[in-house]
Write a structure and sequence with these properties.
alpha+beta, 2 domains, 3 helices, 12 strands
Length: about 230
């Protein structure tokens, strides 16, 4: 991928300054003739684009573009032509900040006509294959009324007690005859209830279905007297 990018840059340089020698080596004061240097100076992390798909990997390559010629005017002309061409290319970015003198010291050469060319490089990642749902089964359960009666010691009705179905987020209270009623609950499956009376709780599990026309669920509860 990086090799293809280098070849693309070589084609670009050849189209702007035909016949110029091209080098990917570090800048040098010993170059002769007329040429252009494309030295990969740095690789930086680049923020990925916003997308709803799997985010691609993306980096930015910073090239130090230099020119040289037998006459200074020739080097100046080439670097200006390359810079303007890069600024017109939507895939390139030209950095106009001055190049630090310390960089030229590291290369062991006096400053050359130059600029920084920045190019993004993206690596697309394969999208995970979505698994198709071949069959969707929907099970429905009729809605019924569920009723019962709460009895205390001696089978006396317990009024003003709370009866809950936590799984369905339902709650009701008992009347003066200890009766309670849930108007709409699924008919299938067991019913988990919690009875609360006088500060005590009693969990109750009903394994039977009690429709409106059926016998009520009888719950006997003997909370301790305070």
């Amino acid at each position: 991928m990086a090799f293809e990018l280098d070849e693309r840059l070589k084609d670009w340089v050849g189209g702007v300054v035909p016949g110029a020698e091209l080098s990917l080596a570090p800048p040098s004061a010993k170059n002769t003739g007329q040429g252009v240097g494309l030295y990969l100076l740095e690789v930086r992390q680049s923020p990925p684009p916003s997308t709803t798909k799997r985010v691609p990997l993306q980096i930015a390559l910073r090239y130090l573009v230099t020119t040289w010629s037998e006459e200074p005017e020739g080097a100046h002309q080439m670097v200006v032509e390359l810079m303007f061409s890069a600024m017109e290319n939507k895939d390139f970015e030209v950095e106009l900040e001055p190049i630090p003198l310390t960089l030229w010291s590291l290369f062991g050469t006096p400053p050359l006509p130059s600029f920084i060319l920045r190019m993004p490089l993206r690596h697309e990642r394969p999208q995970p294959q979505a698994k198709y749902v071949r069959e969707l089964k929907v099970q429905t359960s009729p809605i019924i009324g569920f009723h019962g009666v709460l009895l205390g010691p001696g089978d006396l009705p317990l009024s003003d007690c709370r009866v809950e179905m936590p799984a369905l987020n339902l709650a009701t209270g008992t009347d003066y005859k200890g009766r309670f009623y849930f108007p709409s609950v699924p008919s299938a499956g067991s019913k988990q209830l919690v009875v609360k009376a006088k500060g005590y709780e009693l969990p109750v599990k009903s394994e039977q279905n009690y429709p409106d026309s059926g016998a009520p669920l009888v719950i006997r509860f003997s909370p301790l007297e305070e």
